[in-house]
Amino acid sequence: MTHISVKPGGRKEIRIGLLGCGFMGKCHTNAYKTIPYIYPAANLMPRLLLLCDKNQEKLERAAVQYGYEECCTDYEELVNDDRIDIVDNCGPDPVHPEPCIAALNNGKNVVCEKPMAISVEDAKRMCEAAAASAGKAMCTFNYRFVPAVRMAKDLIDAGEIGTIYHLRIGYLQMAGHDPSLSPNEAWYSAWPHSGGLQGIGSHAIDQCRFLVGEITSVSALVRTFNQDRAILSAGSKDAVADEGTAALMEFENGAIGVLESSVVATGRKNFLCWEINGSKGSLKWDLEHPNSLFACLEDRGDNTMLGFKEISVTEAGHPYVGPWWPSGHNLGWEHCHIIEKFHFLDAVANDKPLSPYTATFEDGYKVAVIIDAMRTSSRNGQRIPLNF
């Protein structure tokens, strides 16, 4: 048998510098390594050039495990490295603003994990730096890239459910349900003490804006039920690590919404869910059944059969599904990260716009404003109009 030498050839190299080698650094790295063979027609080749983390022992181990060529412990080396095309910030929440701003000031493209910043002031500085930069900047609200979520957006934008009346959305976990857990044993109260609203509620807020539209006012209750975990969030003057939020929202288009986030929801491991009701139909989806969009559309048959019907969003013609597997083969949590990172790399390589599907730093800033308004509302007991 004759062996043939195979060469990649012709692919545009995009050099990645990643800050933070924890859970999300692993997730983003997985995305970059998967993109070349799932999206061969795009001719993109992410190069894992530089990994950065303050913990040198952990860093060196991760650099080998993930496949980065080099590593460093100082983020300034990363953001000032002329070889780097994309700085990907997966560091702790308080370490998002300064490296991202420095990278943008250097004209680099930037990916930043959510929440983009703990304070509105830092989020605004990041948004302004992105607007002034030659680079592109994305905040990773990855659930926008779940095929069923994108299909829902397409149906809404096409007017298939009519005028939107009502949204109910929740993001529920059980990370801190056990009162005996110490603050360091619950991710939201361990350093940097960001809380549940920042950590998972931010995703729910972004889904609201992505699917229904801009939020104009909020009224909320934000609580920490286990007082030993009510620790001041790093980088914040008055916010503590919250455990539960219940909020009412008013939308620019006249719709109203109910949002809850909880990290003490016993039995819920990672449950993002929403239902949207309109004048012609309704849609619902949840992360425990990520490949299914449930739809009730009045002009799809006799009203005697009207009710929610399950759509398996796994066909090649469905949003984002085509490059993956045969019909009926499900995608999982990591796939929306891969799809998201591909769209960002494609936008960088081919100078394409990020909006309307990719979350920008403006989106990240607006989520920060909404979270701050929810906390203010909880403190003073008033409905808070939003000013972005």
Question: How would you summarize the topology of this molecule?
Answer:
Blueprint: E1 12-19, H1 23-38, E2 44-52, H2 56-66, E3 70-72, H3 75-79, E4 86-89, H4 97-105, E5 109-113, H5 120-132, E6 137-140, H6 147-157, E7 164-172, H7 196-211, E8 215-223, E9 244-251, E10 256-262, E11 271-278, E12 281-286, E13 292-297, E14 309-312, H8 333-350, H9 361-380, E15 384-385
Parallel strand pairs: 1-2, 1-4, 2-3, 4-5, 5-6, 7-10
Antiparallel strand pairs: 7-11, 8-9, 8-15, 9-10, 11-12, 12-13, 13-14
Walk me through the structure.
This protein is an alpha/beta fold and 388 residues long. It has two domains: 12-143, 3-Layer(aba) Sandwich (Rossmann fold); 144-329 and 360-385, Dihydrodipicolinate Reductase, domain 2 (2-Layer Sandwich), CATH 3.30.360.10. It has nine helices and 15 strands. It has helices at residues 23-38, 56-66, 75-79, 97-105, 120-132, 147-157, 196-211, 333-350, 361-380, and strands at residues 12-19, 44-52, 70-72, 86-89, 109-113, 137-140, 164-172, 215-223, 244-251, 256-262, 271-278, 281-286, 292-297, 309-312, 384-385. The chain has a nine-stranded mixed beta sheet with strand order 14-13-12-11-7-10-9-8-15. It has a six-stranded parallel beta sheet with strand order 3-2-1-4-5-6, with helices on both faces. A hairpin with a 5-residue loop joins strand 12 (281-286) and strand 13 (292-297). Helix 4 packs parallel to helix 5, helix 5 runs antiparallel to helix 9 and helix 7 (196-211) crosses helix 9. The longest helix has 20 residues, at 361-380.
